[in-house]
Amino acid sequence: MGAGHDGAARELSRRLDARGHQTRVVDFLDMPPLGLGVFVRWTYQMQLRLAPWSYEVLYRLWYVLPFLYGPLVAFDTWLTRRAFQRAVRALDPDVVVTTYSLSALVLGRMRKKGWLRVPVATYLTDFAVHPLWVHPSIDLHLAVSPLAAVTARARSGSKALAPGPLVAEKFRTERPDRRAARRALGLPDDVPVALVVGGSWGVGPVISTVEAIAASGRAHPVTVCGRDEQLKGALEERALGTVIGWTSEMPALMAAADVLVENAGGLTAMEAFAAGLPVITFQPIPGHGRDNARTMAAAGVNRYAHDIDELHRALGELTVPGPAREELVARGRSLFAGDAAVDVLDLAEAQPMPAGVKPFRLPLRRRIASVGAAAALLSYGSLTLGAQAVAAMGVGVARPPHAAGSRTFVGARLTAAELADPAITDELVASRVTVIVDAPTALAAAPQLARLGAAGVEIANGGWGHGSGLRWERAHADVAKAGDVIRHHCGVHIVDFVPGRRFDAFDQMWSRRRRERLVQPDAVVRPGRIPARLKAAHVYLVDGRHDDPDQVRRTLLEFENRLQGRGLVAAPLAELR
Q: Is the same domain home to 116 and 174?
């Protein structure tokens, strides 16, 4: 599917071959019939280039709808099991290793059903362990970091180790001459250099990243565009630093650079860890890119720059010698704690393969039932998929107006005890903050909410208060039933629905029917944890449901003071468009 998966497979194969073992690399996407694998690869690439939001939706789908896991695994296995068994018979291996998520699921199911008697290991190429990366019947999960190994073990219940990234030894052992590498690029010795990569396909907002680096004046950008000639031409036309197409000289480029700026947490980031080059992740691509950025930052091996200011600060700190740079480099190098090839050989020796693999053919009725179940569940899931897709485009979700100016849109989700505190209600009236309540809170604090409504404070629908039942029943309760309770008992007009969970298409349908707008906050503020940088035209939600009234009152006051300190003013959610 990408250079990271292929590169890990090639490097593992090379290490095993060097130890005298025979290996064969098989592309999982060649196994589905009718060229479906080629279609999947093409679709993935088009998603990242033309509609990245759609990949984010698909990536998050498995967190939101875990019940689709089983039908997907069954369907993929039905498509590829026979091809897998042919490959196993042809080579007669002692162990099978996969570096791709979907093949890991198929192999895990085959192990579970007894259709594959060879021990199987999965090598997880990402820092973030997606639900589709692990299967409980996989014999061994190998991870690039201890944090990823812990996650894999928790999600699968099976053994997981962290031997570290699978990258070519040349990145750890070769030390290209820095001056020679810079001379080859036409760069002076004393200019800080940022090496920018967008993977083998050159995907993501690479141009805006290079523009931000060039505008900082802190580093000269050297951009590797992979196989994307259009990206290469666009950067050359703008005269944005040094531009390179496809290259096999990454060790020399890393020797010439002072920092790597990347957007996916993929193979190039692992190579930088090996080479001792600090890594900045900026504007990560959707899905695994964003997940990797967060997980790498949690492991302390990258600097995740969330905006241009953070990028400029990171460039200033990491392009010069100092403790920040040294610590990041040391943590990156510490990942290489073992050798995945040794772990694979240990697995093969511990679980020798019995002679022969018994062929198996799923009965026709079961195959039809599996496909039917998958189609039905995916159709049901498409409602949530479609909801998040249109939300990503801004359809059906309230947004700040284009002329927001210095306004910041603020809501507070409160309890009945907090609404009974006069100090809090006075602050709500003074600060024009929208009050968000669920139906039980509205019943318990109806007089207070009625007074707030009469004083001009917006009251928003926070749902029914629990999430039981099927999705359409939950949406009906949260939007319609809760809205009616708040209107009837508090005597206020409801404009906005602010669910305390992920919303889906059923929420959108009921909101449209009841003329309530869906609101998604840009950030949820907990008492005592106000973001350091508040921004205009953003939606903030202060959630006080798990704190005492005094803490909530102090948080509202501090939030108001922080806004005033940045020249911002609070506005109710009703002023969204």
A: no
Assigned token pair, 60:
């998050």
Q: Alpha carbon of 228 to those of 45, 52, 115, 326, 351: distances in Å? A: 12, 17, 41, 33, 44
Q: Which residues of 156-181 are buried (b: 16+ CB within 10 A; e: fewer)?
A: bebbbbbbbbbbbeebbeeebebeeb
The one-letter amino acid code at 198 reads G
Per-residue CA distances from 349 to 11, 94, 96, 120, 354 (Å) = 21, 8, 13, 12, 12
| φ and ψ of 195, to 5 deg | -85, 120
For residue 116, give the nearest of 152, 155, 79, 89 by alpha carbon: 89
Measure Cα distances from 119 to 17, 115, 219, 346 in Å. Answer: 19, 12, 49, 11
Q: Are 252 and 128 within one domain?
A: no
- Report in angstroms the alpha-carbon separations of 399 from 87, 386, 422, 563, 575: 53, 19, 31, 19, 9
- 537: CATH: 3.20.20.370
Is residue 217 classed as helix, strand or coil in its secondary structure? coil
| Per-residue pLDDT tens digits for 440-496 | 999 999 999 999 999 999 999 999 876 555 677 788 889 888 999 999 999 999 999
Tokens describing residue 342: 């040794």
pTM of this structure: 0.59
pLDDT in tens, 341-368: 999 999 988 765 444 444 444 455 554 5
Which residue range(s) make up the domain with 433? 407-575
